[in-house]
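Action item from last meeting closed. Structure (191 res):
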């Protein structure tokens, strides 16, 4: 497994080694020991989630507040997405900046998104199956969102607005300036 720090260094791109022959392929999609060795700490994943979407579906930007904040490890089983992680840690040097990575069933890449980031993706192919591990359970009371087309963030989703299929909840999410977000030091590093 190859670990690559993105332009926001807390977000990690993971590229597994693929072993293939005439029968198909084999990959290790997760190795707790290798991830711990790279990060210097262990992440205890406790829940897996999966979604299936047609082309043009945008899900996000989602996150959960403490005490149910989540680190996510995301990947595409089938199809392709543009996956986005936005730093929403007030006081962070990269606050309001984002990382966008193409994940697909073909490239097998994964993205590790730490607590304090909003996450979203848009599907680039029909029947895209998206999978993610999280290190904390889903809590409806702590669930929050940020508007996907917030100009302050400026994400290029590679789609025209009228081509995107999005839920009313996501369409009506607040802008970053109005959202409940993380305090960089208090919420994430000082308990």
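Sequence:
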């Amino acid at each position: 497994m190859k670990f690559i720090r993105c332009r926001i260094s807390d977000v990690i791109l993971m590229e597994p080694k693929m072993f293939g022959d005439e029968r198909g392929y084999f990959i290790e999609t997760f190795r707790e020991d290798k991830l711990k060795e790279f990060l210097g700490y262990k992440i205890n994943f406790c829940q897996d989630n999966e979604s299936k979407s047609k082309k043009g579906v945008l899900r996000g930007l989602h996150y959960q507040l403490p005490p149910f904040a989540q680190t996510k490890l995301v990947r595409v089983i089938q199809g392709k997405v543009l996956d986005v992680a936005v730093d929403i840690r007030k006081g962070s040097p990269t606050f309001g900046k984002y990382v966008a990575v193409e994940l697909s069933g073909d490239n097998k890449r994964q993205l590790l998104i730490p607590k304090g980031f909003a996450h979203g993706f848009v599907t680039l192919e029909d029947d895209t199956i998206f999978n993610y591990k999280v290190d904390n359970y889903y809590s409806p009371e702590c669930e929050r969102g940020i508007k996907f087309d917030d100009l302050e963030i400026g994400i290029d989703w590679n789609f025209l607005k009228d081509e995107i299929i999005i839920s009313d909840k996501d369409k009506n999410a607040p802008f970053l300036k109005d959202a409940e977000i993380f305090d960089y030091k208090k919420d994430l590093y000082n308990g």
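Note appended to the action item: The first helix runs from residue 32 to 39.
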